[in-house]
Amino acid sequence: MQELTHYIDGAHVKGTSGRFADVFNPATGEVQAKVPLANAEEMDRAVQIALKAQPAWAATNPQRRARVMMKFVDLLHRDMDKLAEALSREHGKTLPDAAGDVQRGLEVVEYCIGAPQLLKGEFTDGAGPGIDMYSMRQPLGVSAGITPFNFPAMIPMWMFAPAIVCGNAFILKPSERDPSVPLMLAELIEEAGLPKGILQVVNGDKEAVDAILDHDVIQSVGFVGSTPIAEYIYGRGCSNGKRVQCFGGAKNHMIIMPDADMDQAADALIGAGYGAAGERCMAISVAVPVGEKTADALIEKLIPRIDALKVGPYTGGKDVDYGPVVTAAAKANILRLVETGVEQGAKLVVDGRDFSLQGYEDGFFVGPHLFDRVTKDMDIYKHEIFGPVLSVVRANDYEEALGLAMDHEMGNGTAIFTRDGDAARDFANRVNVGMIGVNVPIPVPLAYHTFGGWKKSVFGDLNQHGPDAFKFYTRTKTVTARWPSGIKQGGEFNFKPMD
Ligand code: NAD
After folding, report:
1. Which of 155, 279, 455, 483 has the highest Cβ tally under 10 A?
2. What is the DSSP letter of 241?
C-alpha cells in the first residue's frame, strides 16, 4: 500500500501522528494509498519553516517572483498528462475533465505573471508642501489554504499562486480524498525555482484545520468546501484575528424561458447537470422551465440525452461522459436524498438507482437521475446533492422563476436561457447570485475576473483570483513623506488639511 507524505521544507516527509485516511480509486472502490493526517506539532513545524523562509522571498523583486510563475506554467504543460492521470485516479473524473481542472488552475498562474503590474502602488506627488504620499501592497507573511476534493488542482492553484507571487509563504491543506496532485504541484513549483519552505503541503483533517485556525503566525486562511464547514472556519478564523475568505456550497438554478432554443438548453443541462457526476460547485442542479409547455418540451428533449449518457471509469476513453463519485459515503448520501425525493412526491422521470457497471461493481458509480415536479419544500430542492441528479421545478412565469433563484439560501451561480435580451438583462441585474450565465450554463469567470458567490455560498468580502486575490493576499501600507532638511516649524499637535 502506498503511503503518501506531507511536503515540508522542500522534501516529502512521512506523517508522524500515527493517523491516516484511506485514499480510494473511486472507479474500483479499492484503497490505493493512505494519506497521513497531521497533528498540531506537524503543522507547527511547517509554519515555523514558512516563517523563516518568507522574508527573503518577500524581498525578492516581483519580476523574479513572476518568473517562477512563468516557468511553473511551462512545467504544468509538460506534465499535464501525468497530473491529469493522477487526478482522475483519485477523484474519478474523466481525463479531459481532469486536464481541464489543471488548465483552469494554470490560467490563474498565468494571471499571476502580471504581479509586477498588479502590485504597483499609488503615489501622490506633492500631497502638501514638500510632502509625497505613497501606498504599497505588502505580503501578509504566512497564509494557509484548505481545499475541497472536487478540484484538487484548480483550487489549490487559485489560492497558492496569488499568495506566493505577492510574497507570502503558503501552507496548503488539501482534501484528504485526493491529495496526490497537490503534492505534485508543490514539487513542480520548486522545480520552477520557488525556494523551499514557501509552498508546503500538510495533509490532514479537522485536527490539521484547527491547528491552522489557531496558529498565531498564520495571517490569512482561504477555504473552499461545503457551507457548514465554511461557516465554521470563517467564525473561528476571524475570532482568532485572521483574514479569512470561505467559499461554500451551491444550488444553481437554470431558468429556461419559453423562447429559448430547447435543443441548446437541453444540451447545456446535460453537461452542466451530469458532467463530473454533478460534483461541481457550478453544476446546474435545478432546471426551471417557464410555463407548462416549456417544461414538457424540455423534459422530452432531456430524456433521450440522459439515456445516452455513458458512465464509466476514466480509463474508458473519451466516450465516457462522467465517472464515479468520490467515495462510498458520497454515493450513499446521493441515493438517500433521491429516496427522500420519491417519498416527498417528486416524479422520478429517469431512475438511476439500480445502476451498476459490469466489472466495476464495487466502484462508486451513480446512474443519472431526473426529477420532475420538484417543489421548494422538498429536501432534494433545499440541499446540495452533489451528484448526477437534476431537479425540474416548474414555474408559471418569469417572476416566479426569478423568485426561486432569489429565495434559495445558496447563491453561487445561475443561468438564463432565452432569446430575449430584455429578460436576460433584467435577470442579470436583479438576481442575488454571484455568477450569472446568459445562454451559458456554467459561467465560471476567467482568471482575470473574480470568482465568488453570494448568500450562504460565501463568507468574506473578497472573491477568488483576479484583482481580488491580490487584495486578499496583501495589506496596504501608506507612507506620508516630507523631505526638507528637517521639520523647520517645530512640532505639530493637531490634524490639519494638507495646504
Ligand atoms: P468539505 O467541506 O467536506 O471539505 C473541504 C475541506 O474542509 C477539506 O480539506 C476537508 O479536509 C476540510 N474539512 C472537512 N470537514 C471538516 C471539519 N469538520 N472541520 C474542519 N475542516 C474540515 O467539502 P468537499 O466535500 O471536499 O467539497 C465539496 C463541497 O465544496 C461542495 O459543497 C461544493 O459546493 C463546495 N465547493 C465550493 C466551491 C466554491 O467556489 N464555492 C468550489 C468547489 C467546491
Report:
1. 155
2. T
- 55/413 Cα distance (integer angstroms): 39
Distance 386 CA to ligand 1 centre (A): 12
Q: What is the pTM of this model?
A: 0.96
Mind listing the pLDDT tens digit of every residue in the chain (499 residues)?
Answer: 899 999 999 999 999 999 999 999 999 999 999 999 999 999 999 999 999 999 999 999 999 999 999 999 999 999 999 999 999 999 999 999 999 999 999 999 999 999 999 999 999 999 998 899 999 999 999 999 999 999 999 999 999 999 999 999 999 999 999 999 999 999 999 999 999 999 999 999 999 999 999 999 999 999 999 999 999 999 999 999 999 999 999 999 999 999 999 999 999 999 999 999 999 999 999 999 999 999 999 999 999 999 999 999 999 988 899 999 999 999 999 999 999 999 999 999 999 999 999 999 999 999 999 999 999 999 999 999 999 999 999 999 999 999 999 999 999 999 999 999 999 999 999 999 999 999 999 999 999 999 999 999 999 999 999 999 999 999 999 999 998 665 556 666 777 676 6
Give, as one character, the DSSP assignment of residue 311.
Answer: B
User: Hey, what CATH topology would domain 2-248+457-480 get?
Assistant: Aldehyde Dehydrogenase; Chain A, domain 1 (3.40.605)
Overall residue count recorded for the chain in this entry: 499
- Atom index in ligand 1 nearest the CA of residue 386 equals 31
CA 230 / ligand 1 centre spacing (Å): 7
Give me the sheet containing 252-256, strands edge to edge.
347-350, 369-372, 389-392, 284-289, 252-256, 413-417, 435-438
Is the CB of 220 inside a 6 Å radius of any atom of ligand 1? no
Q: State which amino acid sits at residue 98.
A: A
The residue whose CA is least distant from atom 38 of ligand 1 is 281
Ligand 1 centroid – CA 146 distance (Å) = 8
112 a catalytic residue = no
The CATH homologous superfamily for domain 252-438 is: Aldehyde Dehydrogenase; Chain A, domain 2 (3.40.309.10)
Does residue 434's CB lie within 6 angstroms of at least one atom of ligand 1? no
Q: Tell how strand 410-411 and strand 413-417 pair up.
A: unpaired
Cβ contact 322:96 at 8 Å: no
The ligand 1 atom at the shortest distance from the C-alpha of residue 250 is 34
